[in-house]
Amino acid sequence: MAKVSFVVNGEARTLDLDTRTTLLDALREHLHLTGTKKGCDHGQCGACTVMVDGRRINSCLTLAVMHEGDDITTIEGLGTPQKLHPMQAAFVKHDGYQCGYCTPGQICSAVAALDEIKAGIPSHVSADLTAPPQLTAIELRERMSGNICRCGAYSNILDAIAEVAGRTS
What we know:
This protein is of the alpha+beta class. The protein folds into 2 domains: 2-78, Ubiquitin-like (UB roll), CATH 3.10.20; 86-168, Orthogonal Bundle (DNA polymerase, domain 1), CATH 1.10.150. Helices cover 33% and strands 15% of the residues. The protein has a 5-stranded mixed beta sheet with strand order 2-1-5-3-4, with helices on both faces. Strand 1 and strand 2 (11-17) form a beta hairpin. Helix 3 packs across helix 6 (154-165). The radius of gyration is 16 Å and the shape is globular.
């Protein structure tokens, strides 16, 4: 057992956890933040995507004790039903979800992907690693490639992200 303290959705939290507890299980089972989903539990589907210190991660692949002092944002921390985050509102508008299981991870990943582009972080499809990344459909697809939607709502997801980014798909 170990004590771990971090900030989750703006609130300081301290937990006593088995050192083998993943961040995903700490969020879902101990903090009851069930928006973050357990999909494959192997880092392949992206349903568990959260942001840690502004960077997106698969929370199923990391231990909670590795995040001492970190700032963690889950889907619950982005917006509320009364005041949606712009990405959440765009997903609703563009029907960027069908069953909804992947949606929390997709939204967290999309928010972080746009932040990466704004910060000038290149991706695998960036033609020039020294130039700022361009907000293209190819760029967005690459950045979102770690998030799987079994319903196939990809074009709607891209439309939602593009709208928030200020461009049409």
